[in-house]
Amino acid sequence: MSATHIYDRRIKKTPHGYRCRASAAIRGKASPFSFALFVPPEAYAKIESGFGRQFGIKDVGRLYEVRIRQYVENGVLVSWNIDLGSLDSREVDGLFSDIRRADRVQKVLPHPFQPSQ
Hints:
Layout: E1 3-14, E2 17-26, E3 33-39, H1 44-51, H2 57-73, E4 81-86, H3 89-108
């Protein structure tokens, strides 16, 4: 199973952490799924360490999309509304591993609008 499109992404920074919501179209499923995630301040140091700098909403959005894709690939879709819970600092390393892997693949693949050589 895979997420074909993640959309309607809403991320809000609050004094207690980042609150994330999004919808995702899943290959083979008729209706979209709704996902929620909370990123607590306890995870901030680990996230900054992974990015090597301070991070913002755009960075949290990237981690959130990776987390959704991981969840969908594991195939545990038991409800249309899925609460991914609170991002644990131990999960952050796995998210960054997936980001690095995706970046390596992106560098290898030719851009779709550039002629191959």
